[in-house]
Design a protein that fits this description.
Blueprint lengths: L4 H11 L2 E5 L8 H12 L3 E6 L5 H12 L9 E6 L7 H10 L3 E6 L6 H11 L3 E5 L3 E6 L2 H17 L5 E5 L2 H15 L4 E6 L2 E6 L16 E7 L2 H8 L1 H18 L3 E3 L7 E6 L2 H17 L4 E6 L2 H13 L8 E6 L2 E6 L3 H12 L1 H20 L3 H17 L1
Parallel strand pairs: 7-8, 13-14
Antiparallel strand pairs: 1-2, 2-15, 3-9, 4-6, 4-7, 5-6, 8-9, 10-12, 10-13, 11-12, 14-15
Length: 401
């Protein structure tokens, strides 16, 4: 769904932040994707830019270093940009990750048959991967995330170099995409051991030309946390009762645990907030969005943040308090590249205005024309209050017609 610049301008005026999209342009291919796309578009969920990401080759490598861990990238390497990423966020790519998940395919190729293929198979299975196809020189495997696939591929390249066998690997959203990326890697760089992958629309590769040993990798304490807090819960309890709040929070908690693989921490029944931990960031964003939609359908707003630690998630949730608006925002804040972004679920009143701007432009123009004419003649005749009354009547008509 493509929204007009007028609607984006309206939300920008209310939030003081640029709006990347309202709804989504993502094209669904199955019933689950269709359900999510309909929710994005029906609720007019807006992706806003809180702190703009600066996407460069260097920033992409720094993010990769952070996500994989310095111990998992040898010092002796070359980092290549095969295709530059655009310095902007594509909302449909983000929606694709949220809906489809972070699973990625790894393609590994050996120049000739070797017993290493069985060792690689065992490592993939130990890392909770799935072997999709295997031959004497090739493996296509499915891993839990792009980062997992890249880490395992680097490990394979290191094993190959110690055995004088150049290993090439590539990561893609599908097995076919991974193979195609491997072909591009060979065309652009040559038959060198390395790993090709995509980041934010660009294509990159890490290449190694000498044997290396990875340092002992320590498990990171950083996870993917979601902090959820009901906005103005005291008012909500006064209006609906605490039992309704408990029912609402239990509904969100149940969805997070059963549908998003989340583990809820620190929830006290009757409370208005909690922290949940997830195996991946896309699942955390999905849980935050679903919670915001569910809450708004029950006449309440939530503020939520996603971070690598509990504190970071809580701090990002508090960003909603710092955005000046006519009313508190139902907001899901998260990091993307090296910037901060948020999904804002507009109130029913604001959704009505957006719908008027996007789907009823003729009515809007007609109302403006009538109000202008009445106000003009009222001011000439010395009755400016009639102009004000015309504006008020026009707004009421626009909202309820």
């Amino acid at each position: 769904m493509s929204k007009s610049s007028l609607s984006k301008l309206l939300i920008k005026l209310l939030t003081k932040h640029d709006v990347i999209s309202i709804g989504t342009k993502y094209f669904p291919t199955n019933p689950m994707e269709s359900e999510y796309v309909e929710l994005f578009n029906y609720t007019q969920t807006a992706l806003i830019e809180i702190e703009k990401a600066n996407i460069t080759t260097d920033s992409i490598f720094q993010n990769l270093l952070r996500d994989l861990g310095e111990n998992n990238i040898p010092e002796n390497h070359n980092f290549y940009e095969l295709k530059a990423a655009e310095n902007k966020i594509e909302e449909y790519a983000l929606v694709s990750n949220i809906i489809m998940g972070s699973d990625r395919y790894l393609f590994v190729e050996l120049p000739q048959p070797s017993s290493l293929i069985n060792m690689f198979t065992s490592i993939i299975l130990e890392e909770k991967g799935e072997i999709v196809e295997k031959s004497s020189t090739e493996i296509i495997a499915k891993l839990n995330s792009k980062n997992d696939a890249i880490k395992i591929a680097i490990r394979f390249v290191g094993i190959g170099l110690k055995n004088n066998i150049p290993i090439s690997a590539a990561v893609g959203m599908t097995g076919a995409a991974a193979i195609e990326r491997s072909i591009n890697f060979t065309k652009e760089i040559g038959n060198f051991p390395g790993v090709a992958f995509t980041k934010l629309g660009g294509e990159y590769a890490i290449v190694f030309d000498a044997p290396f040993s990875l340092k002992e990798s320590k498990s990171s304490e950083l996870q993917n946390y979601l902090f959820i807090d009901i906005i103005d819960s005291t008012k909500f309890i006064d209006k609906h009762g605490r039992d309704y709040l408990v029912e609402l929070m239990n509904g969100i908690k149940h969805f997070i645990e059963t549908e998003c693989e989340g583990e809820v921490e620190g929830y006290r029944e009757g409370g208005d907030d909690f922290i949940a931990r997830f195996p991946s960031k896309d699942l955390a964003i999905r849980a935050g969005l679903d919670s915001a939609w569910f809450a708004l359908n029950n006449n309440v707003k939530i503020r939520s943040g996603i971070g690598k630690s509990r504190r970071e998630a809580g701090e990002r949730a508090q960003i909603a308090d710092n955005i000046n608006s006519y009313s508190p925002l139902s907001l899901v804040v998260f990091e993307l590249a090296n910037g901060l972004y948020g999904y804002n679920v507009p109130s029913e009143f604001l959704r009505t205005i957006i719908n008027l701007f996007d789907n009823q432009k003729a009515k809007l123009f007609g109302i403006f024309l009538i109000v202008f004419i009445i106000s003009y003649f009222a001011s000439i005749l010395g009755y400016p209050l009639f102009g004000f009354a015309a504006v008020l009547i026009a707004v009421i008509y626009a909202l309820f017609a």
